[in-house]
Design goal:
The chain is built from five helices and two strands; from the N terminus they run ααααββα. By secondary structure, it is mainly α. A two-stranded antiparallel ribbon has the order 1-2. It is globular, with a radius of gyration of 16 Å.
């Protein structure tokens, strides 16, 4: 059986997995939490610090959702880490990361005006 959301996710009434995933990723702090876990496990406290002071309540709510979705796991002594599925998602974001780095370095007059 493949991993996936274990409970109904907002926006998933259509049954389209992409909509459920986009809904999950669009929740406040979710992408930041996944990003901060890209280099390895972090404790709840270290993750909160890395996320610039996300509230403990919101952090725990997002971690529960990410664990239920099979993207993050918790290990006593090590903290939270991406699962294999979470690492697969992180790899899918790397082209977006590369684009963002190029985009951030562009000067406004470097872009070709399409209009």
């Amino acid at each position: 059986m493949t991993e996936g959301p274990t409970r109904r996710v907002r926006g998933s009434r259509t049954g389209r997995p992409i909509m459920a995933l986009l809904d999950l990723l669009g929740r406040r702090w979710t992408l930041r939490i996944l990003w901060e876990l890209r280099d390895g496990p972090l404790t709840s406290r270290a993750l909160r610090t890395a996320c610039d002071g996300v509230s403990p309540t919101v952090l725990q709510a997002r971690l529960v959702e990410l664990r239920e979705a099979g993207l993050v796991a918790h290990s006593a002594g090590q903290g939270y880490a991406l699962t294999a599925r979470g690492a697969e998602l992180e790899a899918a974001f790397m082209p977006l990361y590369a684009f963002a780095e190029r985009w951030a370095g562009d000067k406004p007059n470097d872009a070709t005006d399409a209009g």
